[in-house]
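so my prof wants the structure for this chain in the tokens format not the other one, which i didnt know existed until like an hour ago. anyway here's the sequence
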Amino acid sequence: MTRETSANLAQTLVGAGVTLVGLALAAGAIGIPGEAGYGGVGPNFLPWVVAGALTLCGILMTIEARTGGFREMEDASGSAAGWWPGLVWVSAGMLANAALITTIGFILSCALCYLLAVQGLRRANGQPAGRPVTLAVDAISGLAISAPVYWMFTQFLAINLPGLTQTGWL
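here's what i got, hopefully its the right format
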């Protein structure tokens, strides 16, 4: 098997995998009730959008792979092997989020998840990560992302997420 043929096979498998994930999300979205909320859309709207977009992307990736491979693809950057400490940082962020979301609320647990994941990605890329300024920027960025998401879900979509207070704003 030539290098190009094995690359096309790997690309086809990636496209097929993305398609299967999209179809699995669609199968899961079937069980979500569709009663419309305040904005006229129900809780099943976003899962269907994501499932449809992911399935479409997977199909297009598979077609691209079968008709000559991903064209104009740059050579991979970075190391040939994964950097395990980066995986540990990202995994720690995910596990901390799952463990703390009901204790410290959605906003703070997601901000912590973001902070830890970005630390792992920065370190894997050889960027300075542990400096106080970098930590502060990552923490503020995590808050700036998670707070609007929390407010959108709780205030506009009427979906209850764990918060620090009962007001629905924090």
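also thought this was worth mentioning. The mean pLDDT is 85.
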